[in-house]
Write a structure and sequence with these properties.
Layout (H helix, E strand, L loop, with lengths): L4 H12 L3 E3 L5 E3 L5 H29 L1
Antiparallel strand pairs: 1-2
Helix pairs in contact: 1-2
Length: 65
């Protein structure tokens, strides 16, 4: 996704309402039990909020800039 791991982590943890951290290999370790569908839905929201909008603006700027 080419995003700062801390930014993605903060979004996920806030949406899940829990705490966690990144391990030495930049993997997210979350406290609690969550279904994979929970993560999928949250990641989809993150992508639509932070990636799709930015890519759209970039393409618009490049076309009209």
């Amino acid at each position: 996704m080419h995003r700062q791991p801390d930014h993605v982590m903060a979004f996920l943890l806030a949406e899940l309402g829990t705490s966690g951290s990144l391990d030495g290999q930049q993997r997210l370790v979350v406290k609690g039990r969550f279904a994979p569908k929970n993560f999928e839905g949250i990641l989809r929201r993150y992508i639509s909020k932070y990636l799709v909008d930015i890519e759209f603006l970039y393409m618009k700027y490049k076309a009209f800039g």
